[in-house]
Amino acid sequence: MGRTLQNTMINLGLQNACDEAVYQLGLDMEELEEIEEDAGLGNGGLGRLAACFLDSMATLGLAAYGYGIRYEYGIFNQKIRDGWQVEEADDWLRHGNPWEKARPEYMLPVHFYGRVEHSASGAKWIDTQVVLALPYDTPVPGYMNNTVNTMRLWSARAPNDFNLRDFNVGDYIQAVLDRNLAENISRVLYPNDNFFEGKELRLKQEYFVVAATLQDIIRRFKASKFGSTDSVRTVFDSFPDQVAIQLNDTHPAMAIPELMRIFVDIEKLPWDKAWDITKRTFAYTNHTVLPEALERWPVDLVEKLLPRHLQIIYEINQRHLDHIACLFPNDVERLRRMSLIEEGDTKRINMAHLCIVGSHAVNGVAKIHSEIVKTQVFEDFAALEPEKFQNKTNGITPRRWLLLCNPGLAELIAEKIGEDYVRDLSQLTKLHKFVDDDLFIREVAKVKQENKVKFALYLEKEYKVKINPSSMFDVHVKRIHEYKRQLMNCLHIITMYNRIRRDPAKLFVPRTVIIGGKAAPGYHMAKMIIKLINAVAQVVNNDPTVGSKLKVIFLENYRVSLAEKVIPATDLSEQISTAGTEASGTGNMKFMLNGALTIGTMDGANVEMAEEAGEENLFIFGMRVEDVTELDRKGYNAQLYYDRLPELKQAVDQIKSGFFSPKDPNLFNDVVNMLFHHDRFKVFADYEAYVKCQEKVSELYLNSKAWTKMVIRNIAAAGKFSSDRTIKEYARDIWHVEPSDLKIPPPNEPRDAGQDKTPNGTAA
């Protein structure tokens, strides 16, 4: 979520008033804003997407709730020591959190372990351990519409009789200390992005948020006028018409068997009716196609922790496979591929398969990703129910990612096209008519230059390096992962460095290359990549031949509040994942909206950005998905590229020989070995095209006016990438609710019954 203060002032239309009031008290608002801690309750794109969605849902007047876990420790703080990443605990609640309100009156029990007893009256889950879920509510204000939604985060609490109720005669002190065991559930965020780690505590977290949330939803449904008992219909017949639940990846997949357990075991609905209601309630968003990221929980772990849920999953699977066997008799191979249970040395539950079978809609997050989901990852399921699969291209909130972080640009745009674009970003197309307006071109360039100077001062303060603010700010910020290919950027830096040294007199377009992002603590290769970037920076930044032509900075502890500083100052946005690996990306959209040009592959939402702005207005290079597939078919041989490209050979040899690690020449052996022998993401295959494309970038940067015109064309084409547009599509195609742009009256005005904003149907 990042910080809340400035976002709240903007959405309430109070920013100028607050700035002025605080100034009159002799304080500086910006200084105050810097004191607030980021709420870092997610890992990367997926968590930030949810935050943007909450802002858009409130702005569109949807009756929507964001549910999650109130982690005591969020994503770790990253320190760089001697070029290595070191993790520190993110004690973000140390000074309290003024935005949250504990709601002990809505505390709910969550059960674990135990056993299942079957009787004539049905199944009973008994002898369980209970953990209490205490909700904390954070307000989510819409933009200037007097709507305030709720984000409800659950914290784990031990019941007061914990470890004391059972035959525990003696150790009272130990029993009280053991309360920590229950409360550890909400202690810390697992720091993996795009990687599955099958730990018991993680499964507990997933079920904890799901069980508490579903009880909360059902309590609210029963208390509403829709839930009131009707003599004709079952109480729950209208449930899917009043409730929509969107599963953000498979992490909350246990919600499907949990809702079935509530309907069948507790509410005593017949299975078929319960299953129909469940399917119509859930929809699933897939966020990655990387096999190592897909959740596959061991059956024995689920059996121990959630025995009744395992039985329900088996029943769902049995009925699912019976259905497929009817449609495709004797196709055992298909049954194996489509089963929710994977056989093998350890039986596992494929959570994505559970989500697809238990949902009425499945979507990817960019056109190309949704195609890959349909035709490759889940092709059998798409063949069965093609109408179930959709696309919903991701978006970003223009409130945080333009108004808040780039007020200079936001104001300049408002002067030209009015202020309405903030709620309807498609209006940015009106900027096309100013693409040849010399004054506007100069003003856009001036805003960018001011942002660069401000960020350069920040860098000089934090990193003690002299930055040339007229150099091209070339920025690559995102989680560190092999598929995102920070290594390819690194090879380009080394190539530029070698070119400067080879011919110091030759014209070189100066660059400040900024790379930032966190590596999962257990991801060895990602940590080596950080060390390599820092080692290269050490050499480049201290070579007098290079001077101010090339500077390399590794940005420490990349997070939302730092993104808000670096993105408005960026000239060149690096979006260089191997085609077919980045589901969408959202940083790409933030840079586009803030006047950076993109160098990127035809991957994720880059494809649609090129479609909107025209491919000639992005720097697109490298293999397309088809080329990657073809190369896989032929077999990727890294050595071929190394032998054919002298500059690549030189750069790799320098890494290999210890040129960047003279004290330990073998330091980067693992990296080099990976690049030659098991590089799934084919860095060498795109190196040549990347370097050539970077030359075109430098060439255009020399012509400031042509560069800025291309920037304006990009900003004018960024309207599609508002999360408001994304949420309208979810609302219409999946949740079946109508967004309302009605501004409800403020609380100090009487509410006219005629314009009372009652939620028109479903709550999402």
Question: What is the mean predicted local confidence, pLDDT?
Answer: 95
Kindly provide the radius of gyration, computed on alpha-carbon positions and rounded to a whole number of angstroms.
27 Å
Strand content: 5-15%
Largest sheet: 6 strands, parallel
Identify the overall geometry.
globular
Supply the helix-strand structural class. alpha/beta
CATH class of one domain: Alpha Beta
Please tell me the CATH architecture of one domain by its name. 3-Layer(aba) Sandwich
Total DSSP helices = 31
Low-confidence stretches: 753-762
Name the CATH homologous superfamily of one domain: Glycogen Phosphorylase B
Fraction of residues in helix: 40-55%
How many β strands by DSSP? 22
